[in-house]
Amino acid sequence: MKRKVVLTVLLLCISMVGYTQVLEKLKTIGFENIQIAENDTIVTIALEDNIYRGTYRGIGKAIEASLEGMQKGTLEMVILDNRVPQLCITLREELITAYQQKEISIREVYAQMEMTVSTDEAIGKLKEVEIINTSQWKTDIILYPEVSLENFSMDKLYHYKVNFAPAIQTSPWKGAMITAQIIFPIATNIKGEATRIRPGIITLSQDIRLKKNFLGRVVVGNFTDNQIGIQAGLRYRSPNGRIEAMGLIGTTGYSEITRDEGWYIGFHQEVTGMLKGIYYEPCLNVELSAQVNRYLFGDYGIRGDLTRHFGEYAIGLYAIAVKGRVNGGFHFAIPFRGKSCKRNHKVRIKLPDYYAAEYSREPRGRYMDEKMGTTYDTRPDENRSIRFYQPDYIRHFLIRELQ
Predict the structure, then answer these.
(1) What DSSP element (H or E) covers 184?
(2) Which residue, 18, 62, 156, 293, shows the most beta carbons closer than 10 Å to its own?
(3) Where are the alpha helices (DSSP H) in 31-175?
(4) Is residue 186 a contact partner of residue 153, using CB atoms and an 8 Å limit?
């Protein structure tokens, strides 16, 4: 009996040493909001990647580090974004053992691991577990460049704007983000507000993970396109992440820096709304979306997008119909800075992860005169590559990265 007790305690100690090694490896790499718990034969780890550009590269580093320290059992890994669960990856014990005994490669691990956006059960095991290397109140100063070329008048070939728009971002609590941006004009041939130093996106946002793959978001503050107000959204994702449905509703007033009044805020409210469906086709890495909108100036319209993901590059086409008039164009998001930027201190200065832009086929005429199809963004880094936690996409490009 005593021998059994001693053996059990010894095995437990060996197991805990292994998990301590996993924790230290993850901390050394720079992952944040780390939690580790053992429940029967399952080891559950939660972590957040604020180091690597994109979503899949950091996940690969975390899996490799965890595999090296695993002693026994199945591994569950919950991927967080601003401490909100986004993805759950499961590696069965037999898969881990085969890798550790060099019977299979890491490529085969990626191919056989289970991935889902359903995180309720896994994250429930970590409720009372201490958070290591928290991201709370850690601050990023992000140096955004802004370049705009528009051809919407007959007197100039192009209207251009070149701005320097640094933003401060910090997270005071789980799911919350404070953003404060200021725009410095560098060069422009447009008169008015474009020549003046002005506020950019200044917001407080709150993301919430609800049950059954529902995620909510509320944001209040100063947005793009001279809007100030509040927006709320709700999104549902199927367990495999291929199908999404989301809705947004917002109410905003006008916001502008003027020569005479300074920061002018109008109290007349414009209500905007959007219903959107998304399908991800894994064989071609194509994202298809369709949406119905109530735009900023009361006009209604529909829009369809086809976006192809090439690793961290996203290039797409879109078509829009408002008031019976059809328009369209293309958009892209391309990587901007280096692949990683570790947060060694409370404050980090960095370039943005991506540069994104959208071009319209018909920027003038009725679309310009009647401000048709006008909308606004609530984040300075809004694009189709960042925060893209799509399981098929992540698996495919983890494997491609090895090649």
Answers:
(1) strand 176-188
(2) 62
(3) 56-69, 93-100, 106-112, 120-124
(4) no
Residue whose structure tokens are 């998001």: 333
Block residue for tokens 């901390």: 27
Report how far residue 198's alpha carbon sits from residue 195's, in angstroms, rounded to the nearest whole number. Answer: 9
CA distances from 242 to 55, 76, 234, 280, 372 (A): 16, 21, 17, 5, 31
Q: What predicted TM-score, i.e. pTM, was given to this entire model?
A: 0.91
- Residue showing tokens 């078509």: 319
Which is it for strands 198-209 and 325-335: parallel, antiparallel or unpaired?
Answer: unpaired
Angle (CA) 50 146 257, round 5°:
110
Measured between alpha carbons, how far is 277 from 238 in angstroms, rounded to an integer? Answer: 12
Buried b (16+ CB within 10 A) or exposed e, 352-385: bbbbbeeebebbeeebeeeebbbbbebbbbebbb
User: What is the sign of the dihedral through the CA atoms of 209, 277, 228 and 199?
Assistant: positive
**What pLDDT is stored for residue 192 in this prediction?**
86
Task: For residue 207, give the nearest of 230, 173, 183 by alpha carbon.
Answer: 173
Predicted confidence (pLDDT) per residue in 287-297, tens digit: 999 999 999 98
**Separation between Cα atoms, residue 43 and residue 249, nearest integer Å:** 40
